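pipeline stage [seq->struct] | target=Glucosamine-6-phosphate deaminase | organism=Streptomyces tremellae | residues=261
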Amino acid sequence: MEVVIVEDAAAGGETVAQSIAQLLRAKPDALLGVATGSTPGPVYRALTAKARAGEVDVSAARIAQLDEYVGLPAGHPESYRSVVLREVVAPLGLAEDAFMGPDGSAEDVRAACLAYDRALAEAGGVDLQLLGIGTDGHIGFNEPCSSLASRTRIKTLTEQTRVDNARFFDGDITQVPRHVITQGIGTILEARHLVLLATGENKADAVALAVEGPVASVVPASALQLHPHATVVVDEAAASKLKLADYFRATYAAKPDWQGL
């Protein structure tokens, strides 16, 4: 994996937004896989600013959802569909039909998982997938010990993940669903470019294990080591446990400006 260490969360957002803009200039109708949560917010704000400044045309871009809660009513403000429409699609000025995601309220959730996996393939595959990382090393909602070959499927959330996500439900863990639909690790690895963004000291242990530890299902993000084009963008706090931090800084500093991520 290529590891890019930046000063802070804002710099991380700008770095990733630049990479997305570069992709859209080369492929205007690129399919962008987006993540939710607080970490990717700076990416979406920076990309929106570039679009509004005329630095990049996003009008043909397509957006694909990484995961979704199961059982939240349609239109619930914390469904990931609502979050992506609110924080990504609307600010970029895209039509809702530019967005695709799994149906967490489907009567047959397993069929919805299979349908979404097929839809991603039929759309030509994800060009760039933005990922976050959990404190336990999960990506998407692929919790520790998920199969590295897994496809889009139903998962049961760990208690830690529900605790982490309670902040989006007014701190009430009882309101956090217990089940989700998530792209599997095997599905995620089919994207042409994977970009994992992590900020904050609380992610430092997970980042170190994912980047420098062995590939292991107990750290799902370590599967990115198997991908031919995976980039990890971390701020100084999230990079604090990396043994090779100085090497990563020197390597990225030596890259030509045009090469990007």
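stage status: PASS
auto-comment: The first helix runs from residue 9 to 26. The beta strands are 2-6, 31-34, 62-65, 67-69, 99-100, 128-131, 153-156, 179-182, 193-198, 230-235.
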